């Protein structure tokens, strides 16, 4: 009789453990599913946040047209005098994104982006003097347009068209830092 009660208790105990393990497994699956769903929402929120940052960066760069002047090697925010990479560094810093000095150094930040996958706010790099050597940077605006600080017919910030032959042959790479 004592053995039978002991066996019954053991069976009930194993059953309880089994139920506990099953419910624990189910709860962990629910948690994983919930966190996966939250991850998707988080990704959407992050994407939206990144897009807003890109729009602010572009708006800030556009607001500097006619105000910022180009000078090689310059980085003078007080006088709004920059070279191309100091300008991108200045504009991105307003959104809390730290870029290094120099277009070559900036071309190594973030992640590589193929030209066909460009998005607003991506940095695009060109060779404007020595073929194949990065020495100019701009900010992609979408629809083949980019904004950059340059010399030429306009000294200062201007909008360029990436689809023009001159820019197509000088284009080297792009990076996403947002």
From TrEMBL:
SUPFAM superfamilies: Cysteine proteinases
GO biological process assignments: proteolysis
Signal peptide from the UniProt entry: 1-28
Pfam families membership: NLPC_P60
UniProt domain NlpC/P60: residue ranges: 51-178
GO molecular function: cysteine-type peptidase activity
Alphabetical keyword list: Hydrolase, Protease, Signal, Thiol protease
Transmembrane segments: none
Family: Belongs to the peptidase C40 family.
UniProt name for this protein: NlpC/P60 family protein
Organism: Paenibacillus psychroresistens
Phylogenetic lineage: Bacteria, Bacillati, Bacillota, Bacilli, Bacillales
